[in-house]
TrEMBL record:
Gene3D superfamilies: 3.40.50.20, ATP-grasp fold, A domain (3.30.1490.20). It comes from the Eukaryota. InterPro entries: ATP_grasp_subdomain_1, Dala_Dala_lig_N, PreATP-grasp_dom_sf. GO terms for molecular function: ATP binding. SUPFAM superfamilies: PreATP-grasp domain (SSF52440). Pfam families: Dala_Dala_lig_N (PF01820). It comes from Citrus sinensis. This is D-alanine--D-alanine ligase N-terminal domain-containing protein. PANTHER family: D-ALANINE--D-ALANINE LIGASE, D-ALANINE-D-ALANINE LIGASE FAMILY. Residues 79-194 form the D-alanine--D-alanine ligase N-terminal domain.
Length: 283
């Protein structure tokens, strides 16, 4: 099946990982510890309270007490910051990813702290219980009363630099996979799991990433870029013919260049149907 990508003036959300390749930050490689991923529920969670911001602060104090207690039992505790949410429509998927990490991480030498970024890029320290809420809407409206908010992303990054040893980002789409959160963490020298900001930016755009992968010698699916209203039907028809597709019924995938695989992706048949569906997604 052939791929048909498009872009527009709209800000789309996310790109898939390129070629299934897993990248790791040099900062992470330099660590002498690593996360222990296992198949049992995490045991570090603090209890959810209904005491508003003071309750959130109390929870933070409990985490500090847990850290001290674990260290007293022997050895240093690796403090992990788990960040989920984000401004894209994939916040719910991000929560699923965060839950998966929580479900498979444990150890007396690990302490996990959870953080949430809302649609307006406001950062909050949340309890693990909030991560297990069904959808972001289940607790978004409670954040100001139940979570510790940060005045800015800079303040949030400073907090991470002082309170965690490594960050595990699980934000999908914009700000999570386009290098946004990675750039913030790099600026404040906070080690994190995953790809660095520069590589994220390069891979986020499906069309540009495909061109780069092809340039590096990888086999890629042929693609054609449609940019907003600048659509040349004859050029697209020639592309269909060049790639041995019937201009009237050739099967292609139409998708945004900068969004997730589950958002705005559709199958089209022929040039006319492709243009119609591309314009519909852009609008």
């Amino acid at each position: 099946m052939t791929s048909l990508a498009f872009s527009s003036s709209f800000s789309f959300l996310r790109n898939d990982a390129v070629g299934g390749i897993t990248f790791r930050s040099p900062k992470v490689l330099s660590r002498n510890r690593k996360l222990k991923l296992k198949k049992s529920a995490c045991r570090y969670a603090t209890k959810t309270t209904s005491l508003g911001v003071e309750g959130a602060r109390a929870s933070a104090e409990v985490l500090e007490d847990q850290t001290m207690a674990k260290e007293a039992r022997g050895g240093r505790v690796l403090r992990v910051g788990l960040i989920c949410g984000g401004p894209s429509a994939e916040r719910g998927i991000s929560l699923n990813s965060a839950r998966s990490v929580l479900d498979h991480i444990q150890g007396d030498d690990l302490l996990v702290r959870c953080y949430y970024i809302d649609r307006n890029l406001n950062a909050y320290a949340i309890s693990s219980a909030q991560v297990y809420s069904n959808t972001p809407a289940d607790f978004d409206f409670k954040l100001e009363s139940l979570a510790q908010g940060f005045g800015s992303l800079s303040e949030f990054a400073e907090h991470l630099a002082a309170n965690v040893d490594i960050v595990f980002p699980t934000i999908h789409g914009r700000f999570g996979e386009d290098g946004g959160i990675q750039e913030v963490l790099e600026k404040y020298n906070v080690p994190f799991v995953g790809t660095g900001s520069r590589a994220c930016r390069q891979a986020f755009d499906k069309y540009d990433a495909s061109l780069e992968m092809s340039k590096q010698g990888f086999i890629t699916v042929p693609s054609f870029l449609l940019q907003g209203s600048e659509v040349n039907e004859s050029e697209l028809s020639n592309w269909f013919v060049t790639n041995k597709l019937d201009p009237n019924s050739g099967k292609v995938v139409v998708k945004p260049t900068r969004a997730g695989s589950s958002i705005g992706v559709t199958v089209a048949y022929g040039v006319i149907d492709s243009l119609k569906k591309a314009k519909g997604i852009i609008l």
